[in-house]
Amino acid sequence: MSWPTDLTPDRYPGTIRREITVESTAQDDGRLLFTAVLRDRWHDGAGKEEEIHGYEVRLLAEPPDLTVVSIAVQPRFLPFPDCPAAAVAAQRLVGTQLTKGFRSAAIATLGGVEGCTHLLTLVLAIWNQQVVTNYMLTRVDDGTNERTLLSDQIADTCSGWREGGVGLRLLRNREPFPRSVDRKEP
After folding, report:
1. Over pLDDT 90: what percentage of the chain?
2. Residue 1 lies in a domain
3. What pTM was computed for the model?
4. Based on the structure, what is the number of domains in the chain?
5. How far, in Å, CA of 123 to CA of 49, rounded?
């Protein structure tokens, strides 16, 4: 698909805003619940707004490899009557593991005509959130080896968790983590 070269406000008025939220919460049975929402909206700049796309997903995963045990997809604002069918395809992700192979399985499942690019984006946001969710395990040191096991799982997943970096050193030495600092340049 090529874009028109005449992208002027007269031909393409307003602003499109995409909002994605993902929350992860430990459940009483030891599983993790990921709740995610995607909203695409058009704003005209004068107060008018239109919902374009929307999905809500609840994904329940079981440690240690975060195997997906259930996924509930609630289509919200969608332009065509065929769009909600993608929620059915998402059920094929049950049994996959967030920690390995999930990204490729999600793309294979939701990246074609049986899926939806917007639902795929939201499900991949959950996959990405599982790395951030590891942060919950760093907040409490109950004397178990969970923090050491965690350090082995997240080593070299990004610059903050690189081998030899501050994050892994603090985690392995059971030292407290500093609070995040706004690093925006003045």
Report:
1. 56
2. no
3. 0.81
4. 2
5. 25
